Sequence to fold (178 residues):
Amino acid sequence: MPGYILTGTPGSGKTAILRHLEIDGHPVVEEAATDVIALHQALGRPEPWREPDFAERVLDLQQRRRRRAELFGGDVVFHDRSPVCTLALCRHLGLTPPPALLDEIAGMTAERTVFFVRNQGFVEATAARRITFEESLVFERVHELTYREAGFDLVDVPAGPLANRVASIKEVVDRLRR
Fold:
C-alpha cells in the first residue's frame, strides 16, 4: 500500500491536515514524539526530550504504529512524521542519533514521498510544544535538510487555508498513483 509522510515544523498544521484526510476516509499513522512527551510529562518528567533514550522511545512507538498501518485495508496511508523527523529532532537538540534510528531510515523504502507542510507564520505553545516561532523556522530548515540528505522526494505544501492544503495533497497523490 502506498504511504505518504507529512512533515514540517511544529505548529505548521500537519495534524489538522491529517484529521481532514482521516475524515475523508484515508488511514493515518499518528505522530509518536508528541505522545511520548505527553506520557512522560504525565509521569512527572517535564522535559523527556532531554533524556538519553528519548529517540529510542519515539522510534519504538513509530515502528509499532507502522506495523499496525500494514493492517489497513485502504490503498493509501498518511504518516504524521517518520523516523527521519526523529533524526531531525536529534540534530536540532544536539543528541547523537541511536544506531537503530539510522538503520530504520536506511530501510525505509515504501514511503518516499514527503509532503513538507510549511509554517503558518506562528506557533501556539503546548505542554509538548515549547518552541518559539523563530526556533521553529530553524527546526523547519533542519527537517528539510535531513529529508533531502536521506534522499526523500519533498512536495511543498505552502501556508494557506486547510481545504486548499488538503486538496493540493490529494492532487499530488492522484497524479503519483496514475
In short: The chain has a mean pLDDT of 87. The radius of gyration is 15 Å. The chain is about 50% helix and 10% strand. The helical segments are 14-23, 33-42, 54-69, 83-93, 99-106, 133-149, 162-177.
